[in-house]
Amino acid sequence: MSGFVNDIPLYAAGLATTIAVSLLGIFISVIVGIFLALALRSRFRLIAIPARGYIEFARGAPLALVLFLLYYGGPQFGLLLSPHVAGIVGLGLYGAGPFAEIFRAGFSAIQKGEREAAEMLGLTPGQSFLNIELPQALRVTLPACVGQTINLVKESAVLSVITLGELTKVAGTISSITFAVVTPYLTIALLYWALVETIARLGFYAERRFTAKGS
Amino acid sequence: MDRGLAGVWPALLDGFTTTVMVSFSALLLGAPLAILLAAASRGGRVPSRLAGLYLSFWRGTPILVQLLIVFYLLPFLGLELEPTLAATMALALNTAAFQSEIYRAGLQAIPRGHIEAASMLGLSASQTFFRIEAPQAIRLMLPALIGEMQALVKNSSLVSVIAVTDITRRAQQVAASTFRPLEAYASALLLYVIIGAVLACIGLLLERHLSREAKR
């Protein structure tokens, strides 16, 4: 039991890393996802078709292989990434597809009249997008975004396969030192569980606030 | 095409069999448990609480961690399973949680009027379930089930961590022996994407078939 107490700082550091890399990965996912969703709406096939292709490709690709490809395959064409950069970029590219689908649905839920009204009022397309469409799309898609955020936090456990020292890697390290296998993995399972429940609660809270403001 | 690349495919196709076997058996093994869970969550206070706890745990923790827990915990319970079996079990326990939500939602989507009408017409409870509820629910659940199958194939790549020789593990071996990780991992990735696309096609065909049946 004293061993477990000694390991608490390790778990804390692993949890902090998990939260940090997940946040950065999710940030990349959201940005790339918004651009992909916009590309899907494009009138130009040369833009819309590659975006659709990316989303379909990402749907079938396991994160572990995306990470192997970036981290171990990258150096073959001169792309030397640290585990952190490879992990965050990999998680970001992996999560972008589902986010794009969510935002596509969000944008299509906004009535065409809103954009026309914005245009009539003299707003530029950029202003109309940032001030009229994006805020509404984010509000409509909030529950789905929370779900996807939870998914990516869970998927971040896979980052341990490229030696990134997040929570799952920490459990592996502790078990290889102490030869205890069940306790470390059960501990991190509880930590992930708590993290996921926290995000879900925050999501409910945000949803209530936003919808109250919107109505 | 050099020697390195030519060696990739036989190994990957060998892994392909394992990947398909593991994910498909997990799907089938998870189904009865999922139905039990769905029934429990519609049942009384205690069963629905227990089912809720199960769902919350298996949906709220990473699959990789679940896999490692099952793999390391089984020997403690006196079960010495080989990695492939342990991996299949872990995936089955995981997919049961996700499938049960699909079944619950599918059965919930059927209008109560259909069930009332069936009982008015003198159908027994089991007749109502098999002839009225199930056929409609299957059609409603099909897209979600195909999605779950795709997710399962993707998730099964993590069994490579406990040395099951699936596509991902084979790709790692090829990468290590040929020193060409790029080709090995890119080919493996492509293989997963192809499996996902094939599943999507099967899903579309089945959907079209079922809706044609329904119209008749």
Automatic annotation (TrEMBL), chain A:
This is Amino acid ABC transporter permease protein. It is a multi-pass membrane protein. The chain crosses the membrane at residues 12-41, 53-72, 84-103, 177-195. It is found in: Cell inner membrane; Cell membrane. Its main location: membrane. SUPFAM superfamilies: MetI-like. One of its GO terms (biological process) is amino acid transport. PANTHER family: L-CYSTINE TRANSPORT SYSTEM PERMEASE PROTEIN TCYL, MEMBRANE COMPONENT OF AMINO ACID ABC TRANSPORTER. One of its GO terms (cellular component) is ATP-binding cassette (ABC) transporter complex. Belongs to the binding-protein-dependent transport system permease family. HisMQ subfamily. Pfam families: BPD_transp_1. Residues 15-200 form the ABC transmembrane type-1 domain. GO terms for molecular function: transmembrane transporter activity. Keywords: Amino-acid transport, Cell membrane, Membrane, Plasmid, Transmembrane, Transmembrane helix, Transport.
TrEMBL record, chain B:
It is a multi-pass membrane protein. One of its GO terms (molecular function) is transmembrane transporter activity. Keywords: Amino-acid transport, Cell membrane, Membrane, Plasmid, Transmembrane, Transmembrane helix, Transport. Residues 12-200 form the ABC transmembrane type-1 domain. The chain crosses the membrane at residues 20-40, 52-74, 184-206. PROSITE patterns: ABC_TM1 (PS50928). Gene3D superfamilies: MetI-like. The keyword Nucleotide-binding does not apply. One of its GO terms (biological process) is amino acid transport. It is found in: Cell inner membrane; Cell membrane. One of its GO terms (cellular component) is ATP-binding cassette (ABC) transporter complex. Belongs to the binding-protein-dependent transport system permease family. HisMQ subfamily. This is Amino acid ABC transporter permease protein. It comes from Rhizobium gallicum bv. gallicum R602sp.
